[in-house]
Write a structure and sequence with these properties.
Layout: H1 5-17, H2 20-27, H3 31-45, E1 50-52, E2 57-59, H4 61-93, E3 94-99, H5 101-106, H6 108-118, E4 123-128, H7 131-139, E5 145-148, E6 157-165, E7 167-172, E8 188-190, H8 207-218, H9 232-240, E9 246-249, E10 261-267, E11 273-280, H10 289-310
Parallel strand pairs: 3-4, 3-5, 8-10
Antiparallel strand pairs: 1-2, 5-11, 6-11, 7-9, 7-10
Helix pairs in contact: 1-2, 1-4, 2-3, 6-10
Keywords: DNA-binding, Transcription, Transcription regulation
InterPro entries: HTH-type_LysR_regulators, LysR_HTH_N, LysR_subst-bd, WH-like_DNA-bd_sf, WH_DNA-bd_sf
Family: Belongs to the LysR transcriptional regulatory family.
């Protein structure tokens, strides 16, 4: 059976006007076309709905039974239509984003404030979550998108590389661990110039730390046991307090006088990793997603320029 709201509205219009001709005029279709439509309805329902004479149109017993049902269907659809339209518009202007805590603290405030000016109707929800939780909520449809380092493919989730980042060496200004390294005050440092002291690190199971460890091992650098923390912001805080030096991605590097620290870009080689936007495959995305992504990349580029200018490196 393939009855539509258009069929029910045509049926009700005939009942109200008691005329196929007048109903066709109100519906802006031809009278033969309306007759064919009602024949289709009667064929699908296997009954006659109207008794027609040259002067009148009356409902049959079957038509009388259909009348309240058709009226209810039309009334409910017309009632819910504007509600659904409003929900659709709200959905188009709402964006729920999952981000790592350090990214939420260092980058997202600038993205949020810029979007308040450029997209004043955007309802942006930023959730600072661990990476596994970002993946889970994107996969389940609880988040529109997620941001972070996702080197492995996840079922039902597509990845879009947004930008590349590299790494910086960070130490407290009060505890110069590089005292025996070349170019102690340089803004760049080679991996093989890193001091042989315990570092503040992420757990070895985390993707970022695994990449750092591979790079150090490839240069025959011995590991020294240091303190391990679960979050990048903890690494920065510990290093700033003089507990030990650390290696962090550039997107997390402090800018200005946030911390009393010294930083240097790690070179030879420059280790780069992708930072991704992840979305659920097949999920309809809000119209504001591209505006959000564009603004995020603008903020990242400005932040990266400031870090690299400080390091004396021209990335233009």
């Amino acid at each position: 059976m393939n009855l539509s709201i258009r069929h029910f509205k045509a049926f009700l219009c005939i009942v109200q006007t008691r005329s196929f001709t007048r109903a066709a005029e109100q519906l802006h279709i031809s009278q033969p076309g309306l007759s064919l439509m009602m024949q289709d309805v009667e064929g699908q329902l296997s009954c006659r709905l109207f008794e027609r004479t040259t002067r009148s149109v009356r409902l049959t017993a079957a038509g009388q039974r259909l009348l309240p049902v058709a009226q209810q269907v039309v009334d409910e659809v017309e009632t819910i239509a504007p509600v659904l339209s409003q929900l659709s518009e709200t959905r188009r202007r709402t964006l729920r984003v999952g981000v790592p805590p350090i990214f939420s603290a260092s980058v997202m405030p600038h993205v949020y404030m810029r979007l308040r000016k450029t997209q004043p109707t955007l309802d942006l929800h930023i959730l600072d979550l661990p990476k596994p939780e970002v993946e889970r909520q994107v996969q389940n449809g609880e988040l529109d998108c997620g941001l972070g380092v996702f080197p492995k493919r996840v079922l039902e989730v597509s990845r879009r590389p947004l930008f590349e980042f590299d790494f910086v060496y960070l130490e407290s200004r009060a505890a110069p661990f590089r005292s025996r390294a070349k170019g102690r005050n340089a803004k760049r440092i080679r991996w093989d110039e890193l001091p042989a002291v315990p570092f503040v690190e992420l757990p070895p199971t985390q993707d970022l730390q695994q990449q750092i460890n591979k790079c150090r091992a490839a240069r025959g650098m011995a590991r020294t046991d240091g303190i391990r923390m679960n979050r990048l912001e903890s690494l920065i805080g510990m290093a700033a307090a003089g507990v030990g030096p650390t290696i962090i991605p550039t997107f997390a590097a402090p800018i200005g006088t946030e911390f009393q620290v010294s930083t240097a870009l790690l070179t030879a080689p420059v280790l780069t990793l992708d930072f991704h936007l992840i979305i659920k495959r097949g999920r309809e995305q809000p119209a504001v997603l591209e505006a959000f992504t564009r603004t995020l990349l603008e903020v990242i580029e400005e932040r990266r320029d400031r870090i690299y200018r400080t390091a004396g490196k021209d990335w233009g």
